Amino acid sequence: MTEEINVAGVFVPTFVVACIFALGLGMALAATLKRAASFEIKSFAWHPALFDFAIFVILVDICYALLGKFLS
Questions:
Q1: Which has fewest Cβ within 10 Å: 33, 42, 52, 61?
Q2: Cβ neighbours for 64, distance < 8 A, ≥ 6 positions apart
Q3: So what's the pLDDT on residue 45?
Q4: Are residues 32 and 41 in contact, defined by beta-carbon separation less than 8 angstroms?
Q5: How far apart are CA 41 and CA 69, in angstroms?
Q6: Taking the model in full, what pTM does it have?
Q7: In the predicted model, is pLDDT for residue 4 greater than 80?
Q8: What average pLDDT does range 4-11 have in this prediction?
């Protein structure tokens, strides 16, 4: 897999791109769950910040794997 992506002449690590995608997906997922089903994270998770971080880590892994498939 390519470890860097050329963005306008600047080489950006693939992991940074995966983190940016995961952050966007996580924010969209949280907004969708909050609006659509009136999903209250505080009643579902013991520690909401840890829950959000765990979802972020999972999304980073998925995005990194997908970038690896598309860039190789």
A1: 42
A2: 14, 15, 18
A3: 75
A4: no
A5: 33
A6: 0.81
A7: yes
A8: 89
Number of domains in the chain: 1
What does the pLDDT look like over 9-37, one tens digit per residue? 999 999 999 999 999 999 998 888 777 76
Cα–Cα distance measured from residue 22 to residue 14, given in angstroms and rounded to the nearest whole number: 12
Structure token digits, residue 30: 């949280």
Domain containing residue 18: 4-71
Contact between residue 51 and residue 45 where contact means Cβ atoms under 8 Å apart: yes
- CA angle at 23 for the pair 51 and 43, rounded to the nearest 5°: 25
Tokens encoding 72: 């190789």
Q: What pLDDT sits at residue 38?
A: 67
Q: Note the helical H segments in the chain.
A: 14-36, 41-44, 48-71
d(CA 51, CA 57): 10
Q: Which structure tokens are listed for 48?
A: 């909401």
